[in-house]
Amino acid sequence: HTEEELSRSTHSNPGKNLVNGIKTNPASSSPKSSLSVPMGPPVYVDLAYIPNHCSGKNTDPEFFKRVRASYYVVSGNDAANGEPSRAVLDALLEGKSQWGENLQVTLIPTHDTEVTREWYQQTHEKQQELNIMVLASSSTVVMQDESFPACKIEF
């Protein structure tokens, strides 16, 4: 590619070669290569959606060490595909234990799954130690022919 072609392709597709907002090597197509991102300072955000429906395919303890959120949304509801992943929920505990500060974190599951219930029960003491609260919702939204659990977050 000439510089002009490269510039044009970058402007026509600004997200090209970005994985979770981080520039990657275009020659490398392996998803695992995106996990070897150079270390940098942590990023603090109010709300973070755990990528890929909380699948273990591209979220590990490093994600939680670097993306420090007050609220994490867990949206997985497909046990056959490992969503949500117990490994990712455990990675939250491992990553948060490395923060060095005990900031309040709230985990917001969008579905009541067996994986999240078991994880909650089995790691409850560790959650308390790390100042992690799991938000349970007893509210239900009813729209036309469907109903689903609801959660309201105020900032």
From TrEMBL:
<dbReference type="InterPro" id="IPR026074">
    <property type="entry name" value="MAP1"/>
</dbReference>
<dbReference type="GO" id="GO:0043025">
    <property type="term" value="C:neuronal cell body"/>
</dbReference>
<dbReference type="GO" id="GO:0005875">
    <property type="term" value="C:microtubule associated complex"/>
</dbReference>
<dbReference type="GO" id="GO:0005874">
    <property type="term" value="C:microtubule"/>
</dbReference>
<dbReference type="GO" id="GO:0045202">
    <property type="term" value="C:synapse"/>
</dbReference>
<dbReference type="InterPro" id="IPR036866">
    <property type="entry name" value="RibonucZ/Hydroxyglut_hydro"/>
</dbReference>
<dbReference type="GO" id="GO:0030425">
    <property type="term" value="C:dendrite"/>
</dbReference>
<dbReference type="GO" id="GO:0007409">
    <property type="term" value="P:axonogenesis"/>
</dbReference>
<feature type="region of interest" description="Disordered">
    <location>
        <begin position="1"/>
        <end position="37"/>
    </location>
</feature>
<dbReference type="GO" id="GO:0031114">
    <property type="term" value="P:regulation of microtubule depolymerization"/>
</dbReference>
<dbReference type="GO" id="GO:0003779">
    <property type="term" value="F:actin binding"/>
</dbReference>
<dbReference type="GO" id="GO:0008017">
    <property type="term" value="F:microtubule binding"/>
</dbReference>
<dbReference type="GO" id="GO:0000226">
    <property type="term" value="P:microtubule cytoskeleton organization"/>
</dbReference>
<protein>
    <submittedName>
        <fullName>MAP1A protein</fullName>
    </submittedName>
</protein>
<dbReference type="GO" id="GO:0016358">
    <property type="term" value="P:dendrite development"/>
</dbReference>
<dbReference type="GO" id="GO:0005829">
    <property type="term" value="C:cytosol"/>
</dbReference>
